[in-house]
Amino acid sequence: MVDSVGLGSSANSALQGLKRTRQQTSQTNERLSTGLRIKDPLDGTQDFFASQALTNRAADLTQVKNQVGQAISTIQVAGVGLNVINDLSDQARVLATQARNISDPIERTRLAEQFNQIRGQIDSIAANSSFGGTNLIGSSPANLDVALNEDGDSLTVQGTDSTSAGLGISSRTFGSDADIDAALVGISSAQTQIRLNSTSLSSSTSALQNRGDFTNNLTNTLERGNTNLTQADFNEEAASLLSLQTRQALGGYSLTIATENERAVLGLFG
To answer: Under a CB-based contact definition with an 8 Å cutoff, are residues 183 and 96 in contact?
Structure first.
């Protein structure tokens, strides 16, 4: 009777071992098909939740990176606008200088008309130098608040009115030397302001580009960390599958032997 129980126990042990091997084989096959070692908490609680934390932070930083990229584009568009406005102010200065060097009132009037047309072009460029609905150099310039990280730190880019009125380039008649001189002073002051505005925008662009590069590198590092935590090693899993298949074959053979032995013993009592 004891021997019969022992043999029954051996068969049961072989059967349980075979079930475990089949389960492990199924898990390994799934890892090979999905490429994932960890896909839910049952595969490894600590690694799963660590992976979730890395994924969530990477997603937050991706949003920050996108906002930084949007801000850089907005600033660059404003910078292009300022460059064109500076070129237009040069043309206005040339016209005022020509008017100062002549005395013919008709010619001065013609030059004044061209001068005032340039003022209109400056206003048009300033009004159209927007990106994503944000204009840093229009008549009602926006301030651009840019998130630098997921903790709420930010950089504020100050907008400046770079229209003709904002720059102090007034409409002129060139009817007198005093009017022309005032125009030249206004243009000189405007160009100084344009240079200051351009320098400020360039500084902000540089700072944001550095932050964008840092955020991009950090995001890539987090994503690689997540991959290392969750991704299956193909070579390791393939080797494990081969070992499990061999173990499964041996387990089936052991179960067959144990079952046959049990039947043989039971037959003695038949």
So the answer is: yes
Q: Which residues pair with 147 in a beta bridge?
A: 154
CA distance 185 to 189: 6
How many CB atoms within 10 Å of residue 85? 28
In b/e form, how buried is each residue of 161-182, taking b as 16+ CB within 10 angstroms? bbbbebbebeebbbeeeebbee
Class of domain 46-229: mainly alpha
Q: What is the pLDDT of residues 71-98, one digit of tens each?
A: 999 999 999 999 999 999 999 999 999 9
Residue boundaries of the structural domains of the chain: 2-35+232-268, 46-229
CA distance 158 to 167: 16
Angle between helix axes 2-34 and 234-268 (nearest 10 degrees) is: 160
What gap in Å lies between CA 113 and CA 116, rounded to an integer?
A: 5
- Mean pLDDT in the chain? 83
Burial zone of 196 (CB within 10 Å; 0-12 exposed, 13-18 middle, 19+ buried): exposed
pTM of the model: 0.71
Distance CA 245, CA 24 (A): 10
